[in-house]
Each structure stands twice: as structure tokens, then as C-alpha cells.
Write a structure and sequence with these properties.
heterodimer, A: alpha+beta, 5-stranded antiparallel beta sheet, 24 strands, 30% strand, globular, B: mainly alpha, Potassium Channel Kv1.1, Chain A, 58% helix, 6% strand, F-box domain-containing protein (chain A)
């Protein structure tokens, strides 16, 4: 039936030679094809682009690119992807279980691999492909748990606390296994590719602990298995201030020339200007927001707090005093700033507003930073004890002690009472509490995951510009 | 904006040249004649609007040598249907910029309009819309074609669009390995 139509069509398509008179300057037909072929070959490139741009899932685009070389050339063209709405779409979230949760508040114990929850149903990919169940034994020594610590693009950063310890420390440091440098792998679930990363060589004369490892884009702003960087933020003895510590940034990059870990010079990262308490527990990771990493720093003596900020673009540290206006005249003298009570979240939707979520005396408070200042404005408040009354499973023993923030995301915060792991979330727009949502089933953060965009496949027949850029070396 | 301008110019032309006619006659490559509302033609096609404004419309049938009679019939059909439907804000805004605007979903009648077309008629219509500068129609037809790709494997896409597989065996194997996750079957 189709071939009949095709034959007919060839006949009335005779006056075709002048067809390129269209407004756009078009590439001539590329696919040679037998004379009986029809339709899509004759479509000018800019129309083919219009068609392909409408494919919302990158999986659909890749399938189209695999159909023929002309399509692949269009899709891999330098100006196609930036216009394409399907690149950079969050496919779903990996809900991880917080390992510290188990150690500190293990009731009831929740373990297992992170669970993938797709964002929408139009992914056109089998959900099982996202699974982190390691059937192929890709992850080294997968018998003991890997923890999902970060995600970026299509990549996941998994870490595992080493049993031998990074340094053979003595004294109190020996106990802080959780701050030693973990085994780290970068993993792309959909392609099942995995890369183990060697630990940085510790400098012998420094007492060094780890404040966090994070994934960064590669040198050229792309991210993928062949192009990524890692950032490790360390806590070291201060170079000039006795009895204090300071942050140090190390960056891991790929590449045969000059790849591996590199300590960023203190002068460029502004490390020495950021003074931290020696006790590492007083510096807690608070979140990643709007292109920066945030830690909350609790000073020992006067209960004052500050934020340590690492700007991922400028690659430097800064220390910002934290004055939330909640200490004046109230009774919060003994409250702490740690990850269970203090988180920083960004606001992509409302133009990069920085917010702080505080949990003090079972009150969840949201504050927004006034643009261009260090001033915080209260946005919302929920009294958890009252707001959860009457919810199924709510026990009257709850909220004797302070509740804890389990995870904080742009639109919601997951909270639990300390007495029992009883997760519920607070919607930050409405400040309503809610327990039924799937996101309340996991005691840990949710990491967004995008579909991979295979650069080698696209570069193979794509524009030359793209291929050569990737070969450049890191700064 | 473009649309309004076309309309304004069209009205002015009407006063000057052919005040008594509110349709234009178009002639396909194979010599068939079609009548279409001048207002709709000027509003939906930048090329026709320009011709009407420039007075290069032939009363005996304006030659459109690049468009076959089947495609031109569909174009005219679309214009007439469009003239009868209420133009929504979505239509106007989607026709402003060509490549960059977020795509607007086709309206129900537009969906039906392209759904009934054969494969070949659809591709001919895309090209006619492109030639005549009918951006909304181009949008609607491109949407339909992309729908035909969704959820299909490369093999199925080749089959639907009658594309010759120009990858070598080795290249296909490479693609298969690298993109296994993106395909339904492997």
C-alpha cells in the first residue's frame, strides 16, 4: 500500500529542481537512496530540525540518530542541542538512604540501594535500566554498601567508607572514620559504565579530614563519563591561625595529560580567609544551591554561626556570617547548627533565591535571603507538633525531642521526629505537611538524574568543532 | 505582529487593485485552480501576504509551480478551515518566531486535519507550508511527523519513513553497545 503511494508520488514530484527557492538556505539532499525512496529524504534540513526538535526525550532523539547518518548529522550539529528542550531534562530522582541515619538514628533500619523514581512517564525507557542493583558486578566489592553522595547530568557519585581508613590517625581522629576519604566511583546507570577514582595522596604533615566530595562538569562545561571533574573539600590545620582549621579544595579531572587529583592553591581558593573550628563536626554540609556548595559552621564559644560557601564557577571559598534574627530575646540559646537542623536550598523557579530551612524546637522555618545582602527574611513557619496532629501513625510521644530534617529540596523538606523514623514532608509553597507522597518513603536525599548524551556517538559524525573541543586539556 | 502587518497591507491592496474580490486563485504545478479566502491566505502565509500586498496576484490563477495539486488542495483546505475556527492567542504567538519559540500543541481540529493525511501527502504539505511561509501549518505538520517517531526503534523509524540504512554493520554494533539503554529491544 505504501509503495503504491510512493510510486504515485514520484510522478507528481517532477518539478522539483527549483524547490530550493525556499526562504532558508538549505543543504542539498544527502541521502542518495534508490529513486523509489520518498518523503523524508526530500525534506530540507531546517524542516528536519523542526521535526526532530519536537522529540522531547533524548532517548527518542538517539533512536532517530541511529536511523541514518543524515539524521545523526542534523542532531549532532553544533546548533541543534542548545535549541533542544530534551537535553538536560531530569529523567527522575534517585532516592538515597542516608548512611548517617543508620548509624545515628537507626530505628527502624532502612537500607538498600537508592531507588529511582521517574519524573514522568514519557521517558520511553525501561525503568529497570535505571536500577542500581548491581547484577553485573560492575561496582568494585559491591558486597558492602555504596552510598549515593552526589549526582550531576547522567552521572552518579557513589562512595564507600573505607574500613582501613585514609590515614592512620591517632587520638580522637581515629574514630572519625566518617570523615576519612572514602572509596569513590563515578557511575552512569543507563550505560552501565563505571569508573573508580583513586584517593588523593594525603600530605603527611597535615591532619586532614573530608568535608565532602562532589561531581562537577568537565573542563568544557559538559558532563558525561568521558568528561567530568570531582571536587573534594578537605578540612586541614590552618596555615597561620593556631588552633583553627581551614578548607582546602582538590579537583580530580580526567585525561592522559595531567589528569588525576590536584590541590588548588590556597591563594586562588581564598582558603586561608575562611577560618573553621578544629572540631570537624562543627562544620556540616548544608546543601548545594544555585551553583554553590554550602556548609554551616557552628562556633564553640558564643553560639554564633556562619556559612562556608564554595562557588563552583569561581572555584573559591568565602565565609558569610549567619544572622537569622532568631536569637534575639528568644530561648534558642542552646540550639545547634547541623545538617539535621539547617539546610540551604536554591530556587531555580524564582530566579535563584537562596533559602535556609531551620528546624528549631520543632518549628520548621523557611528564610529567604534578600537579594544582594546577607539579610534573611522569614517566609514561612510550621509548628510540627501541631501540624501533624491526627495524621495516621502520629504518636503522642513524638516531638518530645527536636525533629530532624532528613532531606531538603527546592520545593519540599522531608522531616521526621527523633523518637521514630516517621517521615513526612513540608511543601515549601503552601507550608502544608503531607505523608502520603512517594518522596516520604526514603530517609535520605533525592538526587536528580538526566539522560546521558553520548558524546562519542555524536562526535563520530558530528561537526568537527565539537570533536576538537573535547580534546582540549584542562586548565 | 507579522500577521497583522500582512493583513493591513492586504486590505490596502484590496482598496487599490481589486476591491471587488475577496478570494485569490492559486494554480498548482499541474495546472489545477484553487480559490482561497484572501484574508486567510494573507494571515496564514507570509509569502501569499507579500504577493497580495505587492499586487503580483494573477486573477486567472497565481502560479505556484513548486506545489502539486494534492498539496495545494490541502493548503487551501487548511486556510478555509482556519478561517472558520476561532484564532486563539496560541496561534498568533506561535507564528511569530520561526525556530526558537516553544512549540504550541496543535488544536483538536488541526490534529484531525493532519491525521487523515497519507504519509506522502503529509510530507508534501510540510514542503508546501515551508515554501509558502505558513509557519503555523509547518508547526502542525512537523508535530505530526515527530509523533510518528516517538517510541519507535531505529528499525521501525526506517520502516515508517522508508529510510535507507546507511550505517555499516560495524557502526551499527557500536551504536548498539553505546546506546543499548535508549532502545526498547536489545
Amino acid at each position: 500500500m505504501a509503495s503504491e503511494r510512493r510510486r504515485r508520488r514520484r510522478k507528481d514530484k517532477k518539478p522539483k529542481t527549483k524547490r530550493r527557492a525556499s526562504r532558508k538556505h538549505d543543504e542539498q539532499l544527502v541521502a542518495p537512496g534508490p529513486p523509489s525512496s520518498t518523503g523524508v529524504h526530500d525534506v530540507p534540513v531546517h524542516i528536519l530540525e523542526l521535526i526532530l526538535l519536537r522529540l522531547r526525550s533524548s532517548a527518542c532523539l538517539l533512536r532517530a540518530a541511529a536511523a541514518c547518518k543524515r539524521w545523526r548529522r542534523v542532531i549532532s550539529g553544533a546548533d541543534f542541542l542548545p535549541r533542544c528542550s530534551s537535553s538536560g531534562v531530569v529523567a527522575g530522582h534517585y532516592h538515597a538512604f542516608d548512611p548517617d541515619w543508620l548509624a545515628d538514628y537507626g530505628s527502624p533500619p532502612v537500607t538498600g540501594n537508592p531507588v529511582f523514581v521517574p519524573s514522568n512517564s514519557s521517558l520511553a525507557i525501561d525503568r529497570r535500566r535505571f536500577s542500581l542493583d548491581d547484577d553485573d558486578d560492575l561496582l568494585p566489592a559491591s558486597d558492602t554498601g555504596w552510598t549515593l553522595t552526589d549526582s550531576r547530568g547522567s552521572l552518579l557519585l557513589l562512595s564507600k567508607r573505607s574500613t582501613t581508613g585514609w590515614r592512620r590517625d591517632t587520638g580522637w581522629r581515629a574514630n572519625i572514620n566518617s570523615h576519612s576519604f572514602p572509596d569513590v566511583v563515578v557511575y552512569e546507570p543507563l550505560t552501565r559504565r563505571c569508573q573508580g577514582i583513586l584517593r588523593p595522596e594525603p600530605e603527611e604533615h597535615h591532619a586532614t579530614c573530608l568535608l565532602g566530595v562532589f561531581l562537577l562538569d568537565g573542563c568544557h562545561g559538559h558532563i558525561g563519563m568521558s568528561e567530568f571533574r570531582l571536587l573534594a573539600v578537605l578540612h586541614e590545620d590552618h596555615v597561620s591561625e593556631h588552633g583553627r582549621a581551614m578548607p582546602v579544595a582538590c579537583v580530580f579531572s580526567l585525561g592522559s595529560d595531567g589528569g588525576g587529583w590536584r590541590v588548588l592553591p590556597n591563594e586562588s581558593t581564598n582558603s586561608a580567609a575562611v577560618s573553621l573550628p578544629v572540631v570537624i563536626e562543627r562544620t556540616s554540609f548544608a546543601g548545594r544551591a544555585n551553583g554553590s556548595l554550602y556548609w554551616v559552621v557552628e562556633e564553640e564559644d558564643d553560639g554564633a554561626a556562619a556559612m562556608m560557601v564554595f562557588d563552583e564557577a569561581a572555584m573559591n571559598f568565602s565565609r558569610v556570617p549567619l544572622i537569622l534574627g532568631e536569637n534575639e530575646g528568644d530561648s534558642y540559646d542552646d540550639h545547634h547548627y547541623d545538617r539535621w537542623s539547617f539546610r540551604v536550598i536554591g530556587g531555580v523557579e524564582d530566579g535563584g533565591v537562596l533559602r535556609v530551612v531551620r528546624l528549631v524546637c520543632n518549628e520548621l522555618r523557611v528564610l529567604a535571603r534578600r537579594r544582594g545582602t546577607d539579610e534573611w527574611v522569614a517566609e514561612g513557619l510550621v509548628r510540627l507538633r501541631e501540624a501533624t496532629l491526627g495524621m495516621p501513625g502520629r504518636d503522642e510521644r513524638f516531638f518530645q525531642r527536636d525533629a530532624m530534617v532528613v532531606a531538603a529540596h527546592e520545593g519540599y523538606v522531608v522531616v521526621t521526629p527523633q523518637e521514630k523514623t516517621w517521615l513526612f514532608s513540608v511543601d515549601l509553597k503552601t507550608m502544608e505537611v503531607e505523608r502520603e507522597h512517594e518522596r516520604n518513603r526514603y530517609a535520605g536525599p533525592a538526587f536528580p538524574s538526566e539522560l546521558p548524551w553520548p558524546p562519542s556517538f555524536m562526535a563520530a559524525c558530528g561537526s568537527r568543532e565539537r570533536g576538537s573541543r573535547r580534546r582540549g586539556s584542562c586548565r | 505582529m507579522e500577521v497583522d502587518k500582512g493583513k493591513g497591507e492586504a486590505e490596502e491592496t484590496r482598496k487599490v487593485a481589486e476591491a471587488d474580490r475577496d478570494t485569490v486563485t492559486l494554480k498548482s504545478s499541474d495546472g489545477k485552480l484553487f480559490e482561497v479566502s484572501k484574508e486567510a491566505a494573507a494571515r496564514l502565509s507570509t509569502v501569499l501576504a507579500g504577493m497580495i500586498a505587492g499586487g503580483s496576484i494573477d486573477d486567472n490563477g497565481t502560479d505556484l509551480k513548486q506545489i502539486g495539486s494534492e498539496a495545494l488542495e490541502n493548503v487551501v483546505d487548511y486556510c478555509n478551515k482556519h478561517a472558520n475556527s476561532i484564532p486563539s492567542a496560541a496561534l498568533i504567538s506561535s507564528s511569530i518566531s520561526f525556530n526558537t519559540a516553544p512549540f504550541k500543541e496543535p488544536e483538536e481540529w488541526e490534529r484531525k486535519f493532519v491525521d487523515r493525511l497519507s504519509h506522502d501527502a503529509l510530507f508534501d504539505l510540510v514542503e508546501a507550508a515551508n515554501f509558502l511561509g505558513m509557519e503555523r501549518l509547518l508547526d502542525v505538520t512537523c508535530h505530526k511527523i515527530s509523533e510518528m517517531m516517538k517510541g519507535k526503534s531505529p528499525d521501525q523509524i526506517r520502516e515508517v519513513f522508508n529510510i535507507k540504512n546507511d550505517y555499516t554493520k560495524e557502526e551499527l554494533e557500536e551504536i548498539r553497545q553505546e546506546l543499548a539503554w535508549a532502545f526498547y529491544d536489545d
